[in-house]
Amino acid sequence: MSLAVNKDLDVKGLVDKVLEAYPEKSRKRRAKHINVLEAEAKDCGVKSNIKSIPGVMTIRGCAYAGSKGVVWGPIKDMIHISHGPVGCGYYSWSGRRNYYIGDTGVDSFGTMHFTSDFQEKDIVFGGDKKLHKVIEEINELFPLANGISIQSECPIGLIGDDIEAVARLKSAEIGKPIVPVRCEGFRGVSQSLGHHIANDCIRDWVFEKTSPVEGFESTPYDVTIIGDYNIGGDAWASRILLEEIGLRVIAQWSGDGTLAELENTPKAKVNLIHCYRSMNYIARHMEEKFNIPWVEYNFFGPSQIAESLRKIAALFDDKIKENAEKVIAKYQPMVDAVIAKYKTRLEGKKVMIYVGGLRPRHVVDAYHDLGMDIIGTGYEFAHNDDYQRTPHYVKEGTLIYDDVTAFELEKFVEELRPDLVASGIKEKYVFQKMGLPFRQMHSWDYSGPYHGYDGFAIFARDMDMAINNPVWNLTKAPF
Amino acid sequence: MTQVNEFPVSQNADKVLDHFTLFRQPEYQALFKRKKDEFEFGHSDEKVAEVSEWTKSEEYKAKNFAREAVVINPTKACQPIGAMFAAQGFEGTLPFVHGSQGCVAYYRTHLTRHFKEPNSAVSSSMTEDAAVFGGLNNMIDGLANAYSLYKPKMIAVLTTCMAEVIGDDLQGFIANAKKKDSVPEEFPVPFAHTPAFVGSHIVGYDNMMKGILTNFWGKSEDLETPKTEKINIIGGFDGYAVGNNRELKRIFGLMGIDATILSDVSDVFDTPGDGEYRMYDGGTTLEETKEALHAKATISLQEYNTPQTLQFCKEKGQEVAKFNYPMGVAATDELLLKLAEITGKAIPASLKLERGRLVDAIADSHTHLHGKRFAVYGDPDFCLGMTRFLLELGAEPVHILSTSGSKKWEKQVQKVLDGSPFGKDGAAYGGKDLWHLRSLLFTDRVDYIIGNSYGKYLERDTKIPLIRLTYPIFDRHHHHRYPVWGYQGALNVLVRILDRIFEDMDANTSVVGVTDISFDLVR
């Protein structure tokens, strides 16, 4: 591996050339979001968390996607109402592979789509009355649901509905928590505000209104996993390592999570944060309110996993520290075998990443573990603090792009010709048509888990599968 | 609490275990149990089992059908995705969705997951300020950016519910944007208001189709031009459009018919993997679209996707005809006869031969279809087409359900059922959803379900095999490349149904020494 990437290329020149296609005003705005990482940089030198420019094909989603799709949706024993017209819940129905265990439709509801299906009269006369009825019907048909959340779609905030009043009233009536979430899609600039709003609602409508479950006894080894959505089972592949070093994971936020786990979280000794972007808010709140420290960790790839296990163990006693070393040692032979098998096939391959708010930096060392180089990376909805955390992972010369447009990404990839593009479903087929290997890095391309030691083996296999499949040799016809 | 070396490492570099097998290993099974027992504070297994049984009962069905407000697992999306689909079938057309940006990410994702193809559309990315002041500036800047970057031949504007609630006026906004030189004055920017809280994706399709035709056909003096011998065909929102439109074109070729498919996504959603990404490819040309005004007739293959469009065509002096997703022998006969009647072209012997071959195939297989009970769900036209075909096969459509279905549609389905002795047990459920269907399947069982990928949850719960034949199909690949219309299409549908029946039969006769007496080699 080299210490810098894109060394012999005029990447800055490429950026200027690509931006020429924009009208003047938009070119100036977009230029602030793209940079080439300099040596020893403290951050990436790009603006972030700013409104997308109209008409450019941003890859971003909305606040509803951040709340219903990311934070709340995976809480399996609650019913999440997509409150408003039918579409939002329909498109986000079962799309995110938040694995869970339960009897769907009976005590778990993760792969179902509940909506108040607004009609014109609901827009004109308001939807609160309908919401009352929706909640009553849910309560009757799904008696084992432990709570309800109301995920607001755009019209709710525009027509002046009072979902908080409905939530309070109905919650008292049915005797279960009902959480109103103001995550209308027009709020904020991306999914990110939806995460924040969803975090705040857990604070205000779970922590403030409920208490730890009776019968829950805490121990000095209690931790939580915060910001792991259990895509393809990620949280389980992480949990197993934490348990093996002797910790008790009392809550998973929110993949395969339950309301009780949210309620018991204030009993934790430490909150462990994987996806900082989507859940740092609640971690900070618990630090302030309950004096619970939080620590960021990274379970992608053996280098980061070992570092994180040691970092976590360092917060506990010697027994845990010893266990961490034992766990690292236990998995090392398997990791060595994975690297021995795949590194020769992947060494020196160049990757361009474009994902959400965590993975554009968090997965970098997993690629490095396989001898691969990241030549470009960027986030859909990161903030400044994410870009400050990024230089730790990527090398000088890396092309950084914030809220990249489809146009820019296509041009950058065309010119830099990476061996692999790691992004989302909307990007996948564009690059495969170009004859480029691609992996979806939101859904793990229907594979996974990628977290933990078990996940790393799958990650390595999948990257090899993408890059070394013979189909890429068939792209050009011999005539 | 697990101990460090309580379990050996199951993961293996030689044979990597992914989610399918990894989580069945003992260490994960123990982990699941611990999590459940110690931290989830869920309901007892007995209680869950009891409620689970209750959800399958007549009592539950009655409560379920008494629902008035909550919709659970519907078979409908919202207007804009239908409008986007319609727009994408035109040459070089970029849909421009005015409103919140997340919606566009959802539509693109949904269509991409089905077709396994890129899907291009832009948003005007309206946020709080636009909610207060209106989205005019977003339109002005957005059209300019989209035009410069993506160099479309046409931009088709539609709306999300946000823009509809605040009442943005597309016609005025587009005129304003043109005045500000966002796009040239003569550049086509058709539009459609597509409120998500009215109708569903099929209404959005209709609105956009009418919007685009209005853009090109608007000038009334054009009406003086005499009608040509050409005809227009509108396929509607169709997950099988790639295969179906190509099949239609083949049939037109065989019959010598000069036809324009209005919104033809067949090449748009099926570009080659040859090293080049084509953002635009294929589609109905703008010239053809303009000329389509002078066609003598417009035929819609999905009535419920085109009521306004057909009315508009009628006002422009065209003969109109409508079908309900024509599948099977008689529906194809009717389509061909209608084409022959309108165009004066004869149905060639080659098509008659195809018909004969289809009938022969049905005859060969009828013993496996006769009397088999089916549930069918999906869009209103698909349900009608599928029901008719099942009746032809001697199968019995029992539950026919469409969340977009109206009372009129229910009557139409009933009429189809009444036309055959095989329809005697059938009933149509308009405005109902897949949670209603779940109750129906438990209380009045069928042998097979016909629907889309969302039906896999019904299959899991009821153990009734699912046959995927309508949009969206996310968990099977490439079906949309094969037609389901025409005699050839009917043959494809027949084979899909039969394959599932035979797979089911084998799966149910595979226990050695117990059920495998019927594990026949020849069926």
Judged by helices, strands and strand pairing, the structural class of chain A is alpha/beta
CATH class of the largest domain in chain B: Alpha Beta
Name given to the CATH homologous superfamily of the largest domain in chain B: Nitrogenase molybdenum iron protein domain
Helical coverage of chain A, percent range: 40-55%
What oligomeric state is this? heterodimer
- Number-wise, the strands of chain A total 14
Any overview of this molecule?
The complex is a heterodimer of chains A (479) and B (523). Chain A has 479 residues and is an alpha/beta fold. Chain A is 44% helix and 14% strand. Chain A contains 20 helices and 14 strands. In chain A, the strands form 3 sheets. A 6-stranded mixed beta sheet of chain A has the order 1-12-11-10-13-14, sandwiched between helices. A 4-stranded parallel beta sheet of chain A has the order 3-2-4-5, sandwiched between helices. Chain A has a 4-stranded parallel beta sheet with strand order 7-6-8-9, with helices on both faces. In chain A, α14 packs parallel to α20. The longest helix of chain A is centred in the last third of the chain and has 29 residues. With 523 residues, chain B is an alpha/beta fold. Chain B has 3 domains: 139 residues, Rossmann fold (3-Layer(aba) Sandwich), CATH 3.40.50; 110 residues, Nitrogenase molybdenum iron protein domain (Rossmann fold), CATH 3.40.50.1980; 148 residues, 3-Layer(aba) Sandwich (Rossmann fold), CATH 3.40.50. In chain B, the strands form 3 sheets. In chain B, strands 12-11-10-13-14 form a 5-stranded parallel beta sheet, with helices on both faces. Chain B has a 4-stranded parallel beta sheet with strand order 3-2-4-5, with helices on both faces. Chain B has a 4-stranded parallel beta sheet with strand order 7-6-8-9, sandwiched between helices. In chain B, β8, α14 and β9 form a beta-alpha-beta unit. Chain B is globular, with a radius of gyration of 26 Å. The N and C termini of chain B lie far apart (54 Å). At the A-B interface, α3, α4, β3, α5 and α6 of A face α2, α3, α4, β1 and α6 of B. β3 of chain A pairs antiparallel with β1 of chain B.
